[in-house]
Amino acid sequence: MSRPGYRRFNIAVLLIAGTLVAALAALNIAVDPYSMWRVPLKQGFNAAKPNRFNQDRLRVARDILSRDPDTIMLGKSTAQSYSAGQVQAVTEGRALNAAMAMAGIDEARDNLKLAIASGTKLKRAILIVDLFEFSERQATSVLKVRQPWTRARVLEGWMTATLSESATRASFATLAAGRKAGVAGTGKTRSQTFEGNLTELLKDPSIYLPFTMVDRPYEDLQNMVNIARENDIELVVIVNPIHVRLLEGLRDRGLGDEYVTWMRRLTQITPVWDFSGYNAVTTEPVTDEMVYYSDPLHPTYKTSGIVLSRIFGTPEVAGFGTLVTSKTVDAHIAKDIRIGASAETTQVP
User: Fold this and answer.
1) Which has the least CB within 10 A, 88, 172, 225, 272?
2) For residue 130, which of 280, 263, 301, 5 has the smallest C-alpha distance?
3) What is the DSSP string of 156-213?
């Protein structure tokens, strides 16, 4: 083959390869299997994302390094029930939700440090916590990222999450899930789904049982309090408002004392806003018309808005949310136990 022939051949190969790469990138961006590009959701196409949380840490690191919020939301999937828009509405500032699925207190601390190191002028950090982040199983999760995030590492990860074979497989899995969801739903009502989730949560040994509380998450929380104080950042700690059916299920399985101990240890470190226990929101009857809960562990956006209004604005639901300190925690716990003992007051389904 003559030299011009080689040149044309090489150009053709490069064009074909470039076209394939561009096509894969276009597919993965359009489907957005990891919700990294914020592509609008379309039922029957990309609304069902089985791999949505696989790149949570990369997405959050990118957001922290590329934005300039004055309020940052931290926590695991329960904190993802809060939108940045909701936070901005009550704080009148710029907000970023940096929550990640299965994140522990250590990762929340690391993201707070990353935001500070990036030069962000933070005024406030809001941390959503629950009992399970302080268990041995979740505190030692294999999902934890230990290597510090840098701009170069974020760029490398972004390219991988857009152009890799695994990203393309995730896109096809999303399309398949979308077609399946478009043809038929689960066949279960909302209340049946809630009950099924509750059963799975209480049976799942990787989350709850056996339950062993460890010290490290408390140390990480104390570290967060110190970092916030040193950088003149308001740290707001919120106890997630799990549904009372889940709370009672945990107590039935012998975790009542651990819950009390956990609350006491939290308040020894910092005041907390407690939205759990027995109140008009957490005792919502389990029906197909539920408005406060997506499942027993995750509140809806409506509930999240009520939580934020209680802390930063005007309370919308009487008795929902109490600021608890080390001086008031025992009285708070005793009051909740008394309310729980009254079926007429709680109206628990």
Assistant:
1) 172
2) 263
3) HHHHHHHHSHHHHHHHHHHHHHHHHHHH---S--HHHHHHHHHHHHHH-TTTTSS--B
Q: Give 83-120 as a DSSP string.
A: -HHHHHHHHSS-EEE---TT--HHHHHHHHHHHHHTT-
Question: How many whole angstroms separate alpha carbon 282 and alpha carbon 174?
Answer: 33
DSSP bridge pairs for 96: 72
Low-confidence ranges of the chain (pLDDT < 70): 1-6, 9, 140-146, 181-187, 205-209, 343-349
DSSP letter string, 211-255:
--B-SHHHHHHHHHHHHHHHTT-EEEEEE----HHHHHHHHHTT-
First-to-final CA distance of the chain: 81
Is the separation of the CB atoms in 302 and 320 below 8 Å? Answer: no
Which residues, in sequence order, are bridge partners of residue 135?
213
Q: Which helix (H) or strand (E) holds 18?
A: helix 3-31
Tokens of 233: 């950042």
pLDDT confidence of residue 349:
37
Tokens 């008394």 -> residue: 338
Distance (Å, rounded) from C-alpha 114 to C-alpha 167? 26
**Per-residue confidence (pLDDT) for residue 185, from 0 to 100:** 52
**How far is it, in rounded angstroms, from Cα 62 to Cα 67?**
8
Helix axis angle for 256-269 and 216-230, nearest 10°, is 30
CA distances from 347 to 55, 245, 282, 287 (A): 41, 11, 10, 14
- Quick one: how far is CA 162 from the chain centroid? 23
Tell me which residue of 253, 196, 264, 244 sits closest to 341, measured CA to CA.
Answer: 244
> In sequence order, what are the residues at sequence separation of 6 or more whose Cβ sits closer than 8 angstroms to the Cβ of residue 38?
32
Cβ atoms within 10 Å, residue 16:
10
- Given this model, what pLDDT does residue 187 score? 65
Query: Tokens representing 27?
Result: 């597919």
pTM of the model: 0.88
